[in-house]
Amino acid sequence: MSTLYEPALHINDVNYSMGDVHILKNITGSFPKGKITTLVGPSGAGKTTLLKLCNGLISPTSGDIFIHDKPISSYEPTELRRHVGIALQSAPMIKGTVYHNLALPMELQGRKLAEQDAIAILEDVGLDKLFLHRKTNDLSGGQLQKVSIARTLNNRSEILLLDEITSALDRSSLHEIEELIVKINRKYGTTIIWITHNLEQAMSIGDYTWVLMDGQVIETGESDLLKSPMNEVVRQFVQGGAE
Ligand SMILES: Nc1ncnc2c1ncn2[C@@H]1O[C@H](COP(=O)(O)OP(=O)(O)O)[C@@H](O)[C@H]1O
Ligand SMILES: [Mg+2]
Fold this sequence. Notes:
The protein has 243 residues and is α/β, with parallel strands linked by helices. 33% of the residues lie in helices and 27% in strands. The chain is built from eight helices and ten strands. The strands form two sheets. It has a six-stranded mixed beta sheet, sandwiched between helices. The protein has a four-stranded antiparallel beta sheet with strand order 2-1-4-5, with helices on one face. Bound molecules: adenosine-5'-diphosphate and magnesium ion.
């Protein structure tokens, strides 16, 4: 990968073990600021674990992760949330309305979300203001994913981590979410780190791609690398389809 970019997040020789299991092995690399990097690899490769480390949900066994040249372990949790947001395939919601869910991150910081601001955030993700007082139980998968993304926009995070957010969606919702993420990336310059098992998506949406296998980064580069990988194992993975 070219080094002529500013990293939004830098990973320096990170290892992660649980008991005797060495889950991530000597991971080093940077995610370029304002770009979309897709993470692909077989199930169990360690992609979700890597994302959790980037978000401070778990801590490396050794090595460090830096944002603005500062290890993320040195950030206050609320400060870290302003740098890094996360959205998951399951789009977990608390019981209640869309408003309750959008307001939650601020309430945890002792602040209140004005209704007008909530409506503006909804519009940003392409949901009508009528959704504000709807119960999240009644929403479709695509709508839930939009609320989940809207919730991360609340913090205006510079970096957005996405874990398989379109895996459970039908084709048209999938495209809507892809367009939404690209829009957020362009509009706010948000750095996107996106785990997907959809290799077509990894290429079409990604500027850069990392291929993880068995806890290691096997190949990185511009996302076109998936068309003709250098590494034979990656080539087999790509030809065999995902997962
Ligand atoms: N909480 C956990 N306890 C034990 N093993 C785990 C746990 N989380 C992940 N692992 C193991 O770590 C490896 C990587 O998992 P994961 O990061 O979820 O992979 P991916 O997201 O690429 O499918 C897998 O072998 C998985 O079984
Ligand atoms: Mg995963």
